[in-house]
Write a structure and sequence with these properties.
alpha+beta; conserved putative lor/sdh protein from methanococcus maripaludis s2 fold; seven-stranded antiparallel β-sheet; six-stranded antiparallel β-barrel; 9 helices; rod-shaped
Amino acid sequence: MKRGAWIAISVAAIGAAGAVGYYAGASRDAMRVFASSLILASNASEPGKEVLYYRYPDGAPFYSLTPKKTETGANYVPVTNDRDVSPVGRHASKDASAKGDEQRILYYRNPMGLPDTSKVPKKDSMGMDYIPVYAGDAGDDSTVRVSLGKIQRSGVRSEPATKRVLSTAVRASGIVKLDERRQAVVSLRFEGWIEKVEDVTTGAMVRKGQPLMRVYGSALSAAAADYVSTRGFQGGDRPSLKGGSRQRLENLGVPAEIIHQIETSGKVPLTVVWPAPRDGIVLERNVTDGQRTMPGDVLFRLADISTVWVLADVAENDLPHISVGQSATIRLRGYPGQVLHGTVDLIYPEINMGTRTAKVRIELANPKGLLRPNMYAEVELAAPSNGPVLAVPDSAVIDNGSKRVVLVDKGNGRFEPRNVKTGQHGDSYVEIQDGLKENERVVVSANFLIDAESNLKSALSGMAEAEKTP
């Protein structure tokens, strides 16, 4: 049909619409009928265009696959294949011709992320509009585009990757234990009887040389008598016998102060006062007045608590950050707010199979005796730093178990998922060893929403590729 014929048809349509408007009294409804008739005539007069669907003339979210009229009699407006109109009208670009093919809508996807697409606008079962996917979004597989409004509503925030010194702190729980080298057992090397036990009970603090009990033993008396006789008090000193007699007392475990008392007094005591071998607290008292004891029986167990151990359970993957001589900070549950300092004395060479932890021994001075055996402690070990490293906040890294991803902010609502290699952690930051450059901005807040968009985009792209494959 020639161009003149098309013009004639358009004029006739305009005239008919004008007549309807005149006889309707130029009412609002008549004007809608007039406008829709004009658009229908205009779209029908242009060859080479395909009508995709029909939308409500006022931009309300109502659509139809076939021609339809509103309740006032106005025609639904046809949307052809060269028009860029979003599902709700307000998303449509008014200057689509200026933005080019990037703003062309390819299809509409389910707003809840379900694998469901549509070539025309539609709503889901909850009444939510399907989201348009533009040609520019589908063409770049490396980036994800999110509307600026959605970014503001979801609280997306980004920060640049910078170099900083990371102070890695290893935290572990620990238990206060006695120093094994500062314990002693009081026992006799001969058969004896306990005549009297001094006023010493379990938990009491004793000093070295303090009387613990009064002991009688026939072997002890015989050895003491022999030693006195060799001292020459009854007829001259006999050095050859003196050494053997003293050695006999020492073999019986008699303390040096008791031997010296026998030597200076020249008398054989019926009973001797047995002293404490060292300072400490009494952990056990297994003796009473009149008790018979055999060689090797544990009568008292003492422990010096001026220095104690804290045994911390350090996770297996934190062991590379621990070394002997490293400083440690200890906080006790029984004394909140009080901080103690010690050093790592030993890393035990065995891993607990159940907890996958290793024991780390920390030596701690306890001059005031505040630390008591089996107290619970919180241990913090400061690992040395290797200098400034490229780091991002911990929240920027998405770890799915097999890989670690950050979202690089490209600006204008575009984000690029980037695989990275991470290193040490510290001060709420993580080292980036590979995959990111300094000053590149990464998403640190609400990044899981953009990651969901990225995964959905990949899934839809895979579906599209599968449909193309015969």
